[in-house]
Specification:
By secondary structure, this protein is α+β, with helices and mostly antiparallel strands. A hairpin with a 5-residue loop joins strand 10 and strand 11.
Length: 367
């Protein structure tokens, strides 16, 4: 059975805890190094854990209750018009350094199941009064793999992409960046009975192998966002791509998705300031209905190839403010759930958004 009938779908508790401890140590050190290297700014995502959550859930060896994540939140998209100024004829030119070391940088991903595709590049974005404007062009996924997705891979010559193309002490603006910077999105699906699925990612995906991730983590697919090859990207094209990604990854039909809202525009400094949109969407299906549908779809071999993970962790949305968040993951009921710093920062931003939402509103089933 691919999905078991309880909140945690976890195979080996002992191995997972050992992996979590390593993830905690490495990601906390990396997070602190990045935030100290860059600069102090109100744009960094910061989360203060509630005292009660700290007493119950703080992992051994972690003394802090508040954490700054290596993620810049450039804008809140709440009640803002999303404007796209697109250049479909303009393609990213791979930086000379990455081109010179292409084969070695690409070897960093040798254990991943990969295929190339045209992606949307963010050339720059800016917040204006009642609108958020994104200037876009085109790039390829492989160009992102040897730039944004290989930032700290140390080459034989002794240097890294971060050293050469994205060193401190200040992060480069998107308009100044020499990286591929393809647009991605992270998001959360809320079921009809108030649960959010986190997905344990497969070992052969290109990022966050074996860690738990948000409900959806994906690049914006041009085959979903654009009606034809050389057409212009639109805000509706972005939303359409998100709906289809939900369909592919969680097997939730598009017509069952409601209230799809873009919440924030962020940049992931661990991936060289890679641009990400954060969303929240509601679903008319319950947790059990999604489980049943997913289980049925996974019996079809071709469907298994479309998902980044097959194991879910179901968390009641109303419980989010009571979790303990730190750069290595989240802690729930004393159990460490290893996640990347960006995925945890996305949860922190969802909690920030939820401060104005009534989590106690009645649902169709008890959480």
């Amino acid at each position: 059975m691919l999905i078991q009938n309880h909140d945690r779908d976890i195979n080996s508790e002992t191995n997972r805890k050992d992996c979590a401890k390593d993830s905690i140590r490495d990601s906390v050190l990396l997070s602190r190094r990045l935030t100290e290297l860059i600069y102090r700014s109100d744009s960094f995502v910061r989360h203060e854990n509630k005292p009660a959550a700290g007493r119950e859930n703080r992992p051994a060896g972690i003394c802090d209750s508040a954490f700054t994540f290596p993620v810049l939140c450039d804008a809140s998209l709440k009640e803002k018009e999303l404007r796209i100024i697109d250049r479909p004829d303009r393609f990213y030119r791979l930086a000379d350094f990455a081109r010179a070391h292409y084969d070695e940088l690409f070897s960093f991903h040798s254990g991943s199941d990969l295929y190339n595709q045209t992606n949307i590049r963010v050339d720059r974005w800016l917040q204006e009064d009642s609108a958020f404007t994104i200037h876009t062009s085109r790039t390829t996924y492989f160009d992102s793999l040897v730039t944004n997705r290989a930032m700290d891979f140390r080459l034989r010559c002794g240097t890294t992409v971060r050293d050469e193309l994205y060193h401190g002490p200040f992060p480069k603006d998107l308009s100044e960046s020499e990286l591929s910077n393809h647009l991605g999105f992270n998001g959360f699906i809320v079921t009809a009975d108030g649960f959010i699925p986190l997905v344990k990612r497969r070992r052969d995906v290109s990022t966050e192998k074996g860690l738990y991730g948000n409900s959806i983590q994906a690049s914006l697919k041009t085959r979903y966002a654009l009606p034809e090859k050389n057409s212009f990207l639109t805000a509706e094209g972005i939303r359409n791509s998100i709906r289809k990604e939900i369909r592919d990854e969680l097997k939730i039909p598009e017509e069952e998705i409601r209230e799809l809202k873009l919440l924030y525009a962020c940049r992931n400094l661990m991936e060289g300031g890679k641009p990400q949109l954060l969303f929240r969407a509601e679903c008319t299906l319950t947790r059990e209905e999604i489980r049943q549908r997913f289980r049925e779809k996974m019996r079809q071999e071709e469907e298994q190839m479309t998902v980044d993970g097959k194991e879910f962790l179901w968390i009641p949305e109303k419980e989010l403010p009571h979790l303990f968040l730190f750069p290595g993951g989240i802690v729930r009921q004393g159990i460490i759930i290893p996640m990347s710093p960006f995925s945890v920062a996305a949860i922190a931003l969802l909690i920030r958004h939820g401060n104005s939402v009534d989590f106690s509103a009645p649902r169709s089933a008890s959480a």
